[in-house]
Write a structure and sequence with these properties.
With 324 residues, this protein is α/β, with parallel strands linked by helices. It has one domain: 3-Layer(aba) Sandwich (Arginase, Chain A). It has an eight-stranded parallel β-sheet, with helices on both faces. Helix 8 runs parallel beside helix 9.
Length: 324
């Protein structure tokens, strides 16, 4: 691997206690996009839940995930790497949002991420509800073409409309992404799908487009190793996005979310699967639907921060691999 000078690093915990200093993702330096010269990965908050149809609160997720990310350390023993030795990582602050207008917010988020992507920075984001993935993926697709996706969730988020003809909610982002040509359905795998639906045909559209849907029943039959091998087969070697809705986890591990469904993944199985994405062409990712008002303990935000660190390690390894 050709070496690259690493200029952005977390605050040193041996000198500055992890409870001290300004709260940033992973204790990384925080700066404006235009200032992040040489950055490889930008960690970004998207504090917005205007696409939520029932229990709000995910707009507060990025702030608490930032705070809990101070508990992350620098080195990943299982993967035997430090992301900060492989890539320049920075906190790029929060994307601009309008809490009372969906259409305006989607444009604002897309514009922010378009600036990030055109500067060659790979985004790793904390939501926010799951609709925020759509404008992020739009910006990435301008550079990389239609994306593959490894999607962890209790729900497919491929519904068409809510409350009449309203097309932009946290239950519709990937239907819109497929319709717009942003997401390649035949390179998309959804893991952990479960829970009741409104109609027997609710999942039909995604299957018809070619999405590989792995329900929680199939997941439990196959086991996490076989499931992630299937995911790797589906997305292949082309640019891939990783989206993790914390309601993919059983609510005993992540109660602070808007649409909990019992019978979900364990946190350790989620970690194992994310680690097994190493070697894929991961060009961006997000962890969404952390809703602090439903978990005063902060544990769900800790889960969100930890999953972000897992994805960060995979992304940094992919970036370092491209420099070989």
């Amino acid at each position: 691997m050709s070496e690259k000078e690493i200029v952005y690093k977390p605050l040193p915990s041996e000198k500055i206690p992890r409870y001290a200093g300004i709260s940033t993702f992973m204790r990384l330096p925080c700066m404006e996009v235009a200032e992040a010269i040489g950055a490889d990965i930008g960690l970004i908050g998207v504090p917005w839940d205007g696409g939520t149809t029932n229990r709000p609160g995910a707009r507060h997720g990025p702030r608490q995930v930032r705070e809990m990310s101070a508990l992350m350390r620098n080195y990943h023993p299982a993967l035997e790497l430090s992301p900060y030795a492989l890539a320049n990582c920075v906190d790029l602050g929060d994307a601009p949002v309008n809490p009372i207008c969906v259409d305006t917010t989607l444009k604002m988020i897309e514009g922010f991420y378009r600036d990030v992507v055109k500067r060659g920075v790979a985004p790793l984001s904390a939501g926010g509800d799951h609709l925020v993935s759509l404008p992020i993926m739009r910006a990435l697709a301008e550079r990389h073409g239609p994306l593959g996706m490894v999607h962890f969730d209790a729900h497919t988020d491929t519904w068409d409309t809510y409350f009449g003809d309203f097309k932009y909610t946290h239950g519709t982002p990937f239907r819109r992404a497929i319709e717009e040509g942003v997401l390649d359905p035949r390179r998309t795998v959804q893991i952990g799908i479960r829970g009741g639906v409104y109609d027997a045909d609710d999942g039909a559209w995604g299957l018809e487009q070619g999405i590989r849907v792995i329900t929680i029943e199939e997941y439990n039959d196959l086991g996490p190793q076989a499931v992630i091998e299937e995911a790797r087969r589906v997305v292949g070697t082309r640019p891939t996005y990783v989206s993790f809705d914390v309601d993919a986890l059983d609510p005993v591990y992540a109660p602070g979310t808007g649409t909990p469904e019992i019978g979900g993944l364990t946190t350790f199985d989620a970690q194992k699967m994310l680690r097994c994405l190493r070697g894929l062409n991961v060009i961006g990712g997000d962890v969404v639907e952390v809703s602090p008002p439903f978990d005063p303990s902060g544990n769900t935000a800790l889960v969100g921060a930890t999953l972000m660190f897992e994805i960060l390690c995979v992304m940094a390894d992919a970036i370092a691999g491209k420099r070989q």
